[in-house]
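Thought: the user wants the 3D structure for the chain below. I'll pass the sequence to the structure tool as-is, report back what it returns, then summarize two notable features.
Action: structure_tool
Action Input:
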Amino acid sequence: MCVGFIPLEPTVNAAASLHTFDVNQDNFETEVLQASLETPVLVDFWAEWCGPCKSLGPMLEKLAAEYNGAFRLGKVDVDKNQELAGMFGIRSIPTVIMVKDGQILDGFAGALPEGQLRQFLSRHVQPLEGDVEAEPEEAPLESPEQTIDRLQQEIAAHPDRAELRLDLAAALAQAGHAAAAETELNALPANLATDTRAVRLRSQLDLARSLEGTPPLDVLQQRLHANPQDWEAHDLLGVRLLLGNDPASGLEHWLLILEKARDWNDNQAKKRLLAAFNTLDDAELVGRYRRRMASLLF
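Observation:
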């Protein structure tokens, strides 16, 4: 793309270039830290050889265009900027951090699906109005089974894109197909088997196994209503909420056990909390509950 040439009706790629830039040791202070005092900067640590980076990068650029300047996207090639990556303790890629007001505000590791990327961004920034047409807000959501079907078709069309199998494993787990999800995880190449998302997914599957043959959510709630000290119901309800859409409430159940019956079932509440922290990608939530757990233990 020619520098300085902007089409009258920019495409998404052209618009993304307006809000995306390369970061290196020389410009990090001014273009990221100082610039974040005015506009949040999302920093993507990536590399050419990284498969998941190839799926995450275009989605981040697309969102940078859609948000139309609400944040800027800085790209750090870790092979060319090893010292900069080392300063931030980058252990796996892709890793993404949100810098705002000169401080690291939030972040995540691994190639998140677009829906989770939007959730992450919505905690910190809102799109600005502009000429780039955003996707319809009311776009229909895929069901878990539709997601699985779509990913299987994409894998058939692009068998060399191993990162799609990690996406498929996550979709299978969300749909409750734990055995199939584990099969996909076990088939991942070595570079993806140790990816942060894969490690997190294995922790989620371990928790999901503990629910096999256990009562559903409403029965567990009825048990607690009848007996607020039914620690097993608290424990199982915590797992169901964590793996559902209310992880904070799930963590609350284990904190209650830790406070009222710490030694129950060989300190199971503590074990559950530590396992739960490995499944969550919300750094702020994990940090808050780690501190609360520590205050009860020490």
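Final Answer: Structure generated. The beta strands are 20-22, 41-46, 72-77, 95-100, 103-109. Residues 217-297 form a domain with the Serine Threonine Protein Phosphatase 5, Tetratricopeptide repeat fold (CATH 1.25.40).
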